[in-house]
Amino acid sequence: MAKATKTNKTGASKLHSTKNPISENIRGSMVELLQTHLATSIDITYQTKQAHWNVKGMNFIAVHELFDDLHEVVEDYVDKIAERLTALGGQAHGTVQASAGNTILEPYPLDLVKSEDHLRRLADSYSAWSKAAQEGIEEASEAGDALTEDLLTEVARGLDKSIYFLESHFQS
């Protein structure tokens, strides 16, 4: 049976014991990397829902449904990131409170209404996470963790598609 994680003085969690062949040092750094992406994925999930619930305008239904579709896509990333993190022996910090303290995203404005404002703001958030995911791909590659690299590549590919869907509404 795996040992429970314990938190050290800095708040970082020790790893659960596992037969995963990656060294404990690399697993620890990948868990830290993935905690940031887990927090960011949870944050962007609810930024997208915030837009979905509050969007108004002439193209309401199309944008409302787009935001719901994007929400489902990023919600899938939440699960995949958390499962990879725990497979490496980490303890997923997946609460809203934990995510708020570890996301890379700027807070989402709560007063947005116009569809174009939501589209632009979400494009900024998706772009910021895409940049971080691409940096994470490089970090995982340098660490020799091909599976985390592959996961973040999948995430980055999906984020780029989402950015395209968002930006297409205001590009000409």
Q: What's the structural blueprint in terms of helices and strands?
A:
Blueprint (H helix, E strand, L loop, with lengths): L23 H31 L5 H28 L8 H5 L14 H29 L2 H22 L5
Helix pairs in contact: 1-2, 1-4, 2-5, 4-5
Overview of this protein structure:
With 172 residues, the chain is mainly α. It has a single domain, classed as Ferritin, CATH 1.20.1260. 67% of the residues lie in helices and 0% in strands. The chain has five helices and no strands. It has helices at 24-54, 60-87, 96-100, 115-143, 146-167. α1 runs antiparallel to α4 (115-143), α2 (60-87) packs antiparallel against α5 and α4 packs antiparallel against α5 (146-167). The N and C termini lie far apart (58 Å). Mean pLDDT is 92; it is low at 1-11.
Specify the overall morphology. elongated
pLDDT below 50 for ≥5 consecutive residues: which ranges?
Answer: 1-11
The oligomeric status of these chains comes to single chain
> Remind me, CATH topology?
Ferritin
Mean pLDDT over the residues:
92
Q: How many beta-strand segments?
A: 0
CATH architecture: Up-down Bundle
Q: What's the helical proportion of residues?
A: 55-70%
Distance between the termini: 58 Å
Radius of gyration, rounded? 17 Å
CATH class: Mainly Alpha
Nutshell version of this structure?
The protein is mainly alpha-helical. The chain is 67% helix and 0% strand.
Keywords:
single chain, 172 residues, mainly alpha, Ferritin, 5 helices, 67% helix, 0% strand, elongated, disordered N terminus, Ferritin-like, DNA starvation/stationary phase protection protein Dps, DPS_DNA-bd_CS, DPS_DNA-bd
